[in-house]
Amino acid sequence: MTESRADAPRHETAGRMARVLVVDDEPQLVRALTINLRARKYEVDAAHDGASALHLAATRHPDVIILDLGLPDMDGVEVISGLRGWTRVPVIVLSARHASDEKVEALDAGADDYVTKPFGMDELLARLRAAVRRATPADEEDVVVETGALTFDLAAKKVRRDGSDVRLTPTEWHVLEVLVRNSGRLVTQRQLLQDVWGPSYETETNYLRVYMAQLRRKLEKDPAHPRHFITESGMGYRFER
Amino acid sequence: MTESRADAPRHETAGRMARVLVVDDEPQLVRALTINLRARKYEVDAAHDGASALHLAATRHPDVIILDLGLPDMDGVEVISGLRGWTRVPVIVLSARHASDEKVEALDAGADDYVTKPFGMDELLARLRAAVRRATPADEEDVVVETGALTFDLAAKKVRRDGSDVRLTPTEWHVLEVLVRNSGRLVTQRQLLQDVWGPSYETETNYLRVYMAQLRRKLEKDPAHPRHFITESGMGYRFER
DNA sequence: TTGGGGCGTCAGGACTTCGTCAACGGACGC
DNA sequence: GCGTCCGTTGACGAAGTCCTGACGCCCCAA
After folding, report:
1. How far apart are alpha carbons B158 and A183 in whole angstroms?
2. Contact, B169 vs A233, CB < 8 A?
3. pTM above the 0.85 mark?
4. What angle separates helix B189-197 from helix B170-181, to the nearest 10 degrees?
5. Quick one: average pLDDT of B9-15?
6. Do B126 and A133 touch (CB under 8 A)?
7. Quick one: closest CA in A to B10, which residue?
8. Do the beta carbons of residue A183 and residue A152 sit within 8 Å?
9. How far apart are CA A118 and CA A100, in angstroms?
10. What is the pLDDT of residue A7?
11. B174-211 residue pLDDT tens
């Protein structure tokens, strides 16, 4: 009965199933969660300490993070702060402590939800769905952006140029996506580097030069004089439709 | 101790304090919540049944709703569904029922959080802050300032003059931004130098002369007789729209 | 009238940032 | 084990930006 509605609501992001990062130092709990989540078609990554949690968050870009507060290497609130410096990904805190002030601390540090152990798997999954749903922008339809010759389908991860598909590498796509989602707005080099490569790459501006060049070569009519992928020297880049 | 951090994080939306709609049929609880919330500078509306809750949600546009599931006139989940048809306002559910399936039901109906009675006021307030914080970026402050021929979009870092984009260098932007954010007010040379170049450049007034000239050349119709970028001799500069 | 302070303008050189290319090495499939 | 694809580096000239000093104007006070 409690099981029946487990897969009822959508819990996907932009077409694919949501990716979950599970952070806990108890292997058994991680295992149980992983099995349950995979059974519901989530993609699951797991970390057993704070350091690898932050690293995985940066490299894998999960759609939601389940975070145990009792980690061996760092305080759970520190992990939250470390995440909130550069991302707003939903964080659901797990903790054995019922103490009110710990809840308050975690929530004010930027956590989105707080579940005390032992918890019901159904409830956790429901809270997970709620977190993913919240984080998914309402404009799910609005993911097709068009310019004269270019068409981006952000949901399907497809780019067409003059009617034929263009192949992009994962990183190229990621850069493109950030720019297109901020269509018309200036995106700072910092934000691009953080969004695509993670917070520790903030200064690797040559990555951007390489990938902007590749995007222009694949998408611009005259790559040397770009019309859509504009450089704002010293500040960042801008996608102009 | 648990009280001390109550007003620490911001819980405002676009400058004003957040508006909360409290929905519960127990007058005592409504009263207690109202007092606590008002003490923390929230604006509070209260409803004691589902029908008036829906009505108040529509007319008062709260930033967050605290909703008791045990209402006299309708099921709590129906209220959530009624809301979700047209708004994504965060809903925090209160309930005396600990049953897991009820939580799942409410969350899947579109609730954002679920707190069981009896609850700690600190915890509820923390969850409230989390909900407001999450929802805030939706109305990303679109700082657009317009004068006759000029349009500044501070968020997108875009300037248009007579309909066509104007390119500014990073420093030019920085100067412009300080002036425009203080639209109509005099900005002293000192403040400009400090904001743009840093505290150790307070006396380099010739920087200002150079950059004001460049801004005028790019933005004024008659740079020699500026209309918007006004010099207040001996004091500073002023942007007049 | 004269001198000086504050301001606007201009242009060149130092410096930073950008675009481009080529090469390396790991991951993956065949 | 071999080729391919992809991400990462480093190097270089080109382009863009910033600072600086010089000069002239205007206004006001001496």
Report:
1. 12
2. yes
3. no
4. 130
5. 50
6. no
7. A108
8. no
9. 16
10. 38
11. 999 999 999 999 999 999 999 999 999 999 999 999 99
Distance (Å) from the C-alpha of residue A77 to the closest C-alpha of chain B?
A: 14
| Phi, psi angles (nearest 5°) of residue A13 | -130, 120
Rounded to whole angstroms, the Cα distance separating A166 from A176 reads: 13
Q: How many residues does chain B have?
A: 241
Residues B17 and A194: their CA atoms lie apart, in Å, by 31
CB atoms within 10 A of CB A178: 18
- Chain B partners within 8 Å of A113 (Cβ): 113, 130
State the pairing for strand pair B164-166/B158-161. Answer: antiparallel
Query: In 3D, which of B174, B185, B184 has the Cα closest to residue B208?
Result: B174
Return the residue matching tokens 């200002």: B208
Helical H segments across chain B, by residue range: 27-39, 50-60, 76-84, 100-109, 121-135, 170-181, 189-197, 205-219
Residue among A201, A183, A184 at smallest CA distance from A192: A201
- Considering chain B, what percentage of its residues have pLDDT values greater than 70? 90
